[in-house]
Amino acid sequence: MITLEKLGSFFVAGRQVRVTGHPKRWVSYSSNVTTEYNPNGTFAIEHAYVQYFLPSQPRFQTPVLLIHGGGLTGVQWEDTPDGRPGWLTRLLEARIAVYVIDNVERGRAGWCAIEGEWPDQPVVRSDEEAAQFYRFAFPGHQFPMKAMRYLSAQTVPRWPSTSALQASALAATIERMGPSILVGFSQGGGLSFQAADRQRHHVRACITLEPHGIPTSFSPGVRNIPALMVLGDFIDQDSYWRDMAQRGRDSLVAWQKAGGRAEVWDLPSLGIRGNTHMMMMDRNSDVIIDKLIAWLDQHHEEGDFS
Amino acid sequence: MITLEKLGSFFVAGRQVRVTGHPKRWVSYSSNVTTEYNPNGTFAIEHAYVQYFLPSQPRFQTPVLLIHGGGLTGVQWEDTPDGRPGWLTRLLEARIAVYVIDNVERGRAGWCAIEGEWPDQPVVRSDEEAAQFYRFAFPGHQFPMKAMRYLSAQTVPRWPSTSALQASALAATIERMGPSILVGFSQGGGLSFQAADRQRHHVRACITLEPHGIPTSFSPGVRNIPALMVLGDFIDQDSYWRDMAQRGRDSLVAWQKAGGRAEVWDLPSLGIRGNTHMMMMDRNSDVIIDKLIAWLDQHHEEGDFS
Fold first, then answer.
1. A-B C-beta contacts closer than 8 Å
2. Which of B179, B1, B209 is nearest to B95 (CA)?
3. Does ipTM exceed 0.90?
């Protein structure tokens, strides 16, 4: 049961472009509908989309912002590929206010189709690359492979050049939200730490799930913000992830030096086994979100956020 | 206040493609991260995304499916560009179960970036084309022009060739939902009538808002499904819309001949003035959704759906 005071969505950041001088062309919508299309004019690009869910009697006041990974959208927090309730549902059932971003060029944020405006071509992750990158090859992993097609379906094209635009849109989202708790996955984890540094006046906690691209240094004077890095299973058996985890640990040391607090959950060493990169979709996804909610409760009780 | 038994999302329809023989290329994610990208492998394309919201104590059992217009996504039913609660909120406040589709190649459904797979290039609606097409030039119209940038932001690229794919994904959505009430806008209105014809065993009512592309004939034996076409203001002053409205009326006659019931709301003649094509975003959007909910209540009472 979920009781909401309000739900809705908004757009943040972005810019307007004016296109001129492109030739008109004929466009066919069906065998009997052909119209002339004018590609010139004014267009909005590079904004992010944010959907929000505000419980009536929140567990605590500060909302959580869920920040997806590369090539994914806010869908990754919804029902799991095999149809179980996802972390969005579990957070709302716990009466936590949740904002879900579709960052620049992902999902409902749309993308820039104006010729020549973005420097590069998009990439899309194949099932084969996903299986390798997400650690689906290790025996005993918990990803529901029979539902792989629904993970493929939520995988969208991604532009390698848009990280700075995504950082800006994330900053604008936090400025609009005010005090907030970040939960960032993979690419979104790196972006979360950037935002925790730059928007330190608003960020109250920073949880990252197997983050990519955390900064290696932070401006001094982070005001004691608690940070948590969550790592799944099989990390030590995979040289790519072993390096990534080490870089994450090094970044957390830099975060502590700048004044923050830091903690690492190595899930297998906590007795939680078999987690892939997609821990919010794994069969034991509920175990992890319950543990994260307990972590939030503890930091709320300790006064890290209201 | 909105009380939900469940919320979540799923994907329907689509197919898998195998890509082979494309060259690998180097992709730069930042000044210090460059990796080799392999565009070959297995990919999921041409599915639709559906987000659902199921109230705890529904007003009636049959859910509503909201079907967006061309170049738009399910966002059009959420908060209005000027930040008021949208029709999604109003329907949930009325305890009506709602499914919101992002059809093939829109929003969270993603799109096919595989070279050569789709025959044409996408088009995007400029602010100038939108202003003309949506009837924002008529004095006395109710669209909140100061918030135009948020309508631009929710406008996404669209492939003219995907109508048949969208019809298939809509059919698959209805098959999954079972008995359902369709609410389709513009392009989504035409698709709704196609679905009401083909999925007549499940469709219990068909509401269309200034529909485009309604079929001109239907298979005989439509089982008395009530249909409603809603038309805004200034239609008679705009030759494009005058033609479109006439075609809609002709299609409704065909619908009746096939066994359906049909009704037209010409909003100005009902005393509701100033509505543009974007009636769910106009300043009087609440007036229209209240009237639609009353229409649904009446048809529920008359036994058209449970």
1. 196
2. B1
3. yes
